[in-house]
């Protein structure tokens, strides 16, 4: 279509042949991006002069945070641990629940097309649901507290690990699976002994990666009342007690940094 | 048969290591049960769950198909605009930061300090930035744009750095040897190597930012989040249903588009 409006340039090579060089699509993409940017500026009331005039306000808050309130530390431990526990529990349950679901969604394991498509659609829909929204729904059902947060993290992990796992199962080497089926094993047995060992390292690595991200997500879940350190953040920001917020963020940064390093160590081992 | 058995015996064993790690994980697993509180679970939970499902199945079609500034469509466009502008600003700002944290471009200490800064930028949750920017701009989508821009810097710079550190420098050396100046080296030696990868990273980040932008409304930073939360807190489940359906369709579409574009970019 594009080539018809802007015909390709003809080039004659040294040996007499002529070839067609397609016109670059960069200009039209740039124009589209500029129009989209202009529209976005219009829709979001982006005003550069407000930013130039008031950007120091942002650093005022950071300045208030910077000597963090160390006396606040004892109050942080419990919610911080709650956050880690929530994400750990949710991640482990989610990762285990993802195995049967990924099995059902893998088109080379289950021959029934309807089940495969239903499982895939279910996983996609679950993945589009923002964690904070599922946490809020969970607080309505399970009451305020860590259980709601755990459920939200469980759902997210299930969707994320489930998707990556079924993609891996579909790309697995089927030789061993077929051999085991041919000697009379059931599909589930053959899956357990032929496919699962192949995807296990990747599965563990994905789950660890997901756990890493979940700690970050769990930190804000308290905002909707789903337990963890987000409650303190919410309180501190509400009371404009920025020194405490600084302390919470500092502890959070250290925790995330530690967990990331530990998880990276194990993920490298798995590869 | 003997060969096979020999192979089996000679295979490296790390059972003890696996056992210890498994025990550790099991211990952590049991430990983490102490955080779960089930005393808050109320009898009404089940009723609410069915109400939510009913609302999502029978969405408020007026709201969903409304094209005024209160309707779902307008809110979705606003959310896309926040994510798009935020991604563009973040992507541009992340480029210099990425070069400053690439250890093959700048000296090691500079790279280390920039990396530390990026880690701190990444850890602060988006909602906290949202609240901070509201002090700057007042509530509204403008605060959302700035928030998205700032949170994407951290992640984008991290991914850019990987691409920069993989740069093929032999091309630059050969360009020096045929007498190219610095500008030419950047234009024809570095930009072609990085452009496609950076673009692919940006598209990926836009996909993520859309999800972030959809919850920023919670703190008043614009987008579809605020009406969603209000509808939930007021138990208007049909409205929640229509907003969620709109959001899901949008996220799925953007994900399809992003996957399509990225495979195209990677395969050329």
From TrEMBL, chain A:
CDD domains listed in its UniProt record: TM_PBP2
GO cellular component: plasma membrane
Xref: PROSITE patterns: ABC_TM1
Keywords of this entry: Cell membrane, Membrane, Transmembrane, Transmembrane helix, Transport
Protein's membrane topology: Multi-pass membrane protein
GO molecular function: ABC-type phosphonate transporter activity
Regions that span the bilayer: 27-46, 86-106, 113-129, 135-161, 215-233, 239-259
UniProt main location, coarse: membrane
Compartments it resides in: Cell membrane
Ranges where the ABC transmembrane type-1 domain occurs: 80-260
Keyword tRNA processing recorded: no
Cited InterPro entries: MetI-like (IPR000515), MetI-like_sf (IPR035906), PhnE/PtxC (IPR005769)
Keyword Cell membrane listed: yes
PANTHER family for the chain: ABC TRANSPORT SYSTEM PERMEASE PROTEIN P69, PHOSPHONATES TRANSPORT SYSTEM PERMEASE PROTEIN
Protein family: Belongs to the binding-protein-dependent transport system permease family.
Protein's recorded name: Phosphonate transport system permease protein
Organism for this UniProt entry: Saliterribacillus persicus
Lineage of the organism: Bacteria, Bacillati, Bacillota, Bacilli, Bacillales
UniProtKB/TrEMBL annotation, chain B:
Keyword flag Transmembrane helix: yes
PANTHER family registered for this protein in UniProt: ABC TRANSPORTER, PERMEASE PROTEIN CC0363, PUTATIVE-RELATED, PHOSPHONATES TRANSPORT SYSTEM PERMEASE PROTEIN
Subcellular location: Cell envelope; Cell membrane; Membrane
Alphabetical keyword list: Membrane, Transmembrane, Transmembrane helix, Transport
ABC transmembrane type-1 domain location: 76-258
Top-rank lineage group of the source organism: Bacteria
InterPro entries: MetI-like (IPR000515), MetI-like_sf (IPR035906), PhnE/PtxC (IPR005769)
Annotated source species: Saliterribacillus persicus
UniProt membrane topology term: Multi-pass membrane protein
Bilayer-spanning residue ranges: 16-34, 46-65, 72-100, 112-134, 141-161, 186-206, 213-234, 240-258
SUPFAM superfamilies xref list: MetI-like
GO molecular function: ABC-type phosphonate transporter activity
Gene Ontology CC entries for this record: cell envelope; plasma membrane
Entry's family note: Belongs to the binding-protein-dependent transport system permease family.
Protein name (Swiss-Prot/TrEMBL): Phosphonate transport system permease protein
């Amino acid at each position: 279509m594009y080539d018809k409006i802007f015909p390709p340039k003809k080039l004659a090579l040294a040996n007499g042949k002529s070839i067609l060089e397609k016109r670059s699509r960069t200009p039209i993409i740039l124009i589209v991006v500029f129009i989209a940017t202009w529209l976005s500026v219009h829709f979001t009331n982006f005003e550069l002069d407000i930013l130039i005039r008031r950007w120091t306000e942002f650093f005022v808050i950071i300045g208030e945070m910077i000597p963090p309130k160390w006396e606040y530390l004892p109050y942080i431990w419990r919610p911080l641990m709650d956050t880690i526990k929530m994400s750990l529990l949710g991640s482990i349950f989610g990762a285990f629940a993802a195995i049967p679901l990924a099995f059902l969604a893998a088109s080379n394991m289950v021959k029934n097309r309807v089940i495969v498509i239903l499982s895939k659609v279910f996983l996609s829909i679950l993945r589009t649901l923002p964690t904070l929204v599922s946490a809020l729904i969970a607080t309505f059902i399970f009451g305020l507290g860590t259980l709601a947060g755990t459920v939200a993290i469980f759902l997210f992990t299930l969707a994320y690990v489930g998707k990556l796992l079924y993609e891996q199962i579909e790309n697995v080497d089927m030789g061993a699976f077929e051999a085991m089926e041919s000697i009379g094993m059931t599909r589930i047995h053959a899956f357990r002994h032929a496919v699962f060992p192949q995807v296990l390292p990747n599965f563990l690595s994905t789950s660890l990666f997901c756990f890493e991200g979940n700690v970050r997500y769990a930190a804000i879940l308290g905002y909707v009342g789903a337990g963890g350190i987000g409650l303190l953040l919410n309180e501190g920001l509400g009371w404009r007690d920025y020194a405490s917020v600084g302390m919470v963020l500092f502890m959070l940064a250290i925790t995330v940094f530690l967990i990331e390093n530990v998880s990276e160590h194990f993920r490298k081992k798995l590869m | 048969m003997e060969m096979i058995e020999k192979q089996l015996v000679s295979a490296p064993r790390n059972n003890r290591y696996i056992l210890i790690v498994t025990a550790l994980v099991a211990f952590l697993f049991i430990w983490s049960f102490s955080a779960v509180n089930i005393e808050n679970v109320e009898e009404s939970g089940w009723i609410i769950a069915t109400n939510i499902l009913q609302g999502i199945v029978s969405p408020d079609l007026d709201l969903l198909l409304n094209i005024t500034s209160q309707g779902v469509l307008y809110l979705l466009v606003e959310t896309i605009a926040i994510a798009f502008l935020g991604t563009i600003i973040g992507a541009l700002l992340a480029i210099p930061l990425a070069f400053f944290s690439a250890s093959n471009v700048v000296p090691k200490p500079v790279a280390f300090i920039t990396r530390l800064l990026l880690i701190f930028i990444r850890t602060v949750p988006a909602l906290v930035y949202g609240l901070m920017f509201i002090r700057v701009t007042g509530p509204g989508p403008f605060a959302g744009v700035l928030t998205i821009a700032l949170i994407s810097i951290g992640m984008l710079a991290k991914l850019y750095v990987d691409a920069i550190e993989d740069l093929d420098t032999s091309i630059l050396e050969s360009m020096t040897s045929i007498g190219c100046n610095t500008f030419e080296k950047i234009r024809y030696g570095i930009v072609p190597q990085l452009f496609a990868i950076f673009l692919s990273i940006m598209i990926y980040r836009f996909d993520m930012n859309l999800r972030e932008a959809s919850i920023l409304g919670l703190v008043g930073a614009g987008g579809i989040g605020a009406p969603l939360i209000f509808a939930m807190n007021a138990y208007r489940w049909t409205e929640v249903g229509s907003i969620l359906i709109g959001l899901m369709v949008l996220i799925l579409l953007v994900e399809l588009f992003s996957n399509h574009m990225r495979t195209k970019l990677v395969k050329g």
